[in-house]
Amino acid sequence: MAKKSKKQQQSGGTPATVALTATGVEFTVHAYEHDPSHPSYGEEAAEAMGVSPDRVFKTLVADVDGELTVAVVPVAGSLDLKALASAVGGKRAAMADPAAAERSSGYVRGGISPLGQRKRLRTVLDASASAHATVCVSAGRRGLEVELAPEDLAKLTDAVLAPIGRACPLDGVPVFG
Known about the structure:
The protein has 177 residues and is of the alpha+beta class. 27% of the residues lie in helices and 28% in strands. It contains 6 helices and 10 strands; from the N terminus they run ααβαβββαβαβββαββ. Strands 5-2-3-6-9 form a 5-stranded mixed β-sheet.
Protein backbone atom coordinates (compact mmCIF):
# COMPACT_ATOMS: atom_id res chain seq x y z
CA MET A 1 0.00 0.00 0.00
CA ALA A 2 1.60 3.24 -1.08
CA LYS A 3 0.39 6.07 1.13
CA LYS A 4 -2.26 6.35 3.79
CA SER A 5 -5.34 8.26 2.75
CA LYS A 6 -6.45 11.26 4.80
CA LYS A 7 -9.23 9.12 6.31
CA GLN A 8 -6.77 6.37 7.33
CA GLN A 9 -4.44 8.94 8.91
CA GLN A 10 -7.28 10.48 10.88
CA SER A 11 -8.62 7.13 12.08
CA GLY A 12 -5.18 6.10 13.36
CA GLY A 13 -5.16 2.96 11.23
CA THR A 14 -1.91 1.65 9.86
CA PRO A 15 -1.63 0.09 6.40
CA ALA A 16 -1.59 -3.30 8.20
CA THR A 17 -4.82 -2.75 10.14
CA VAL A 18 -6.51 -1.13 7.14
CA ALA A 19 -5.53 -4.14 4.99
CA LEU A 20 -6.79 -6.58 7.63
CA THR A 21 -10.09 -4.73 8.00
CA ALA A 22 -10.60 -4.80 4.23
CA THR A 23 -10.24 -8.61 4.16
CA GLY A 24 -12.83 -9.29 6.84
CA VAL A 25 -10.39 -11.58 8.67
CA GLU A 26 -10.88 -11.77 12.42
CA PHE A 27 -8.09 -10.04 14.33
CA THR A 28 -7.43 -8.21 17.59
CA VAL A 29 -5.32 -5.07 17.97
CA HIS A 30 -3.11 -4.80 21.05
CA ALA A 31 -1.66 -1.40 21.90
CA TYR A 32 0.96 -0.77 24.56
CA GLU A 33 3.28 2.05 25.55
CA HIS A 34 6.56 1.55 23.67
CA ASP A 35 9.69 2.02 25.78
CA PRO A 36 12.52 3.28 23.52
CA SER A 37 15.10 2.01 26.03
CA HIS A 38 13.92 -1.63 25.82
CA PRO A 39 16.61 -3.76 24.14
CA SER A 40 14.17 -5.83 22.02
CA TYR A 41 11.00 -4.68 20.25
CA GLY A 42 9.58 -8.21 20.14
CA GLU A 43 10.34 -9.12 23.73
CA GLU A 44 8.89 -5.79 24.81
CA ALA A 45 5.67 -6.59 22.93
CA ALA A 46 5.43 -10.08 24.49
CA GLU A 47 6.00 -8.69 28.00
CA ALA A 48 3.57 -5.79 27.54
CA MET A 49 0.81 -8.06 26.24
CA GLY A 50 1.51 -10.91 28.67
CA VAL A 51 1.89 -13.32 25.74
CA SER A 52 4.45 -16.11 25.45
CA PRO A 53 7.39 -15.00 23.23
CA ASP A 54 6.89 -18.08 21.04
CA ARG A 55 3.48 -16.64 19.96
CA VAL A 56 4.82 -13.17 19.17
CA PHE A 57 6.49 -13.08 15.76
CA LYS A 58 8.99 -10.54 14.48
CA THR A 59 9.12 -9.46 10.86
CA LEU A 60 12.60 -9.40 9.39
CA VAL A 61 13.64 -8.43 5.88
CA ALA A 62 16.47 -10.35 4.29
CA ASP A 63 18.23 -10.28 0.95
CA VAL A 64 18.04 -13.68 -0.76
CA ASP A 65 20.17 -13.80 -3.90
CA GLY A 66 19.59 -10.08 -4.47
CA GLU A 67 15.84 -10.10 -3.79
CA LEU A 68 14.27 -8.73 -0.61
CA THR A 69 12.34 -11.40 1.26
CA VAL A 70 10.24 -11.19 4.43
CA ALA A 71 10.87 -13.69 7.23
CA VAL A 72 8.40 -13.98 10.11
CA VAL A 73 9.84 -15.81 13.12
CA PRO A 74 9.12 -16.03 16.86
CA VAL A 75 10.75 -13.32 18.96
CA ALA A 76 11.88 -16.13 21.25
CA GLY A 77 14.34 -17.27 18.59
CA SER A 78 16.37 -16.11 15.64
CA LEU A 79 16.26 -16.40 11.87
CA ASP A 80 18.16 -19.23 10.19
CA LEU A 81 19.32 -17.46 7.01
CA LYS A 82 20.35 -20.68 5.28
CA ALA A 83 16.89 -22.19 5.92
CA LEU A 84 15.24 -19.00 4.63
CA ALA A 85 17.23 -19.14 1.39
CA SER A 86 16.34 -22.80 0.98
CA ALA A 87 12.62 -22.12 1.63
CA VAL A 88 12.44 -19.76 -1.37
CA GLY A 89 14.75 -21.75 -3.64
CA GLY A 90 17.71 -19.43 -3.10
CA LYS A 91 21.35 -20.07 -2.40
CA ARG A 92 22.43 -17.27 -0.03
CA ALA A 93 20.65 -14.98 2.38
CA ALA A 94 21.79 -12.06 4.49
CA MET A 95 19.92 -9.51 6.54
CA ALA A 96 18.79 -6.61 4.36
CA ASP A 97 20.07 -3.11 4.84
CA PRO A 98 17.70 -1.53 7.42
CA ALA A 99 17.09 1.50 5.18
CA ALA A 100 16.15 -0.78 2.26
CA ALA A 101 13.79 -2.75 4.53
CA GLU A 102 12.10 0.48 5.67
CA ARG A 103 11.81 1.86 2.11
CA SER A 104 10.39 -1.37 0.75
CA SER A 105 7.91 -2.00 3.57
CA GLY A 106 6.89 1.57 4.30
CA TYR A 107 7.40 0.91 8.01
CA VAL A 108 10.14 1.77 10.51
CA ARG A 109 12.36 -0.81 12.19
CA GLY A 110 10.61 -2.26 15.20
CA GLY A 111 7.28 -1.61 13.49
CA ILE A 112 7.64 -3.56 10.25
CA SER A 113 4.53 -5.63 9.69
CA PRO A 114 4.23 -8.49 7.22
CA LEU A 115 0.81 -7.03 6.34
CA GLY A 116 0.07 -3.92 4.28
CA GLN A 117 3.62 -3.44 3.06
CA ARG A 118 4.29 -0.78 0.45
CA LYS A 119 5.89 -3.35 -1.87
CA ARG A 120 4.69 -6.95 -1.63
CA LEU A 121 7.65 -9.25 -1.07
CA ARG A 122 8.06 -13.01 -0.93
CA THR A 123 7.21 -14.02 2.62
CA VAL A 124 8.16 -17.06 4.68
CA LEU A 125 6.39 -17.77 7.98
CA ASP A 126 8.15 -20.03 10.45
CA ALA A 127 6.36 -23.38 10.61
CA SER A 128 6.11 -23.13 14.42
CA ALA A 129 3.27 -20.63 13.92
CA SER A 130 0.93 -23.47 13.00
CA ALA A 131 1.23 -24.85 16.55
CA HIS A 132 -0.77 -21.87 17.87
CA ALA A 133 -4.43 -20.88 17.53
CA THR A 134 -3.30 -17.24 17.15
CA VAL A 135 -0.03 -15.38 16.75
CA CYS A 136 0.88 -11.73 17.15
CA VAL A 137 2.77 -9.62 14.61
CA SER A 138 3.50 -5.93 14.36
CA ALA A 139 0.54 -3.85 13.26
CA GLY A 140 2.80 -1.34 11.55
CA ARG A 141 4.21 0.79 14.34
CA ARG A 142 6.09 0.35 17.57
CA GLY A 143 3.67 -0.34 20.41
CA LEU A 144 0.96 -1.85 18.22
CA GLU A 145 0.45 -5.57 17.51
CA VAL A 146 -2.25 -7.57 15.75
CA GLU A 147 -3.29 -11.04 16.83
CA LEU A 148 -4.71 -13.38 14.21
CA ALA A 149 -4.82 -17.02 13.17
CA PRO A 150 -1.54 -18.15 11.58
CA GLU A 151 -3.49 -19.60 8.63
CA ASP A 152 -4.94 -16.14 7.95
CA LEU A 153 -1.51 -14.52 8.23
CA ALA A 154 -0.06 -17.03 5.76
CA LYS A 155 -2.95 -16.60 3.34
CA LEU A 156 -2.93 -12.78 3.43
CA THR A 157 0.83 -12.58 2.83
CA ASP A 158 1.01 -15.52 0.39
CA ALA A 159 3.57 -16.93 2.81
CA VAL A 160 5.36 -20.22 2.52
CA LEU A 161 5.44 -22.10 5.83
CA ALA A 162 8.92 -23.46 6.53
CA PRO A 163 11.18 -24.12 9.54
CA ILE A 164 13.24 -20.91 9.29
CA GLY A 165 13.53 -20.10 13.00
CA ARG A 166 16.18 -21.23 15.42
CA ALA A 167 15.20 -21.61 19.04
CA CYS A 168 17.11 -19.60 21.59
CA PRO A 169 17.27 -21.71 24.73
CA LEU A 170 15.90 -20.27 27.91
CA ASP A 171 17.83 -21.86 30.75
CA GLY A 172 18.72 -24.69 28.36
CA VAL A 173 15.12 -25.41 27.32
CA PRO A 174 14.12 -24.64 23.70
CA VAL A 175 11.14 -22.29 23.54
CA PHE A 176 9.77 -23.52 20.21
CA GLY A 177 10.37 -26.34 17.76
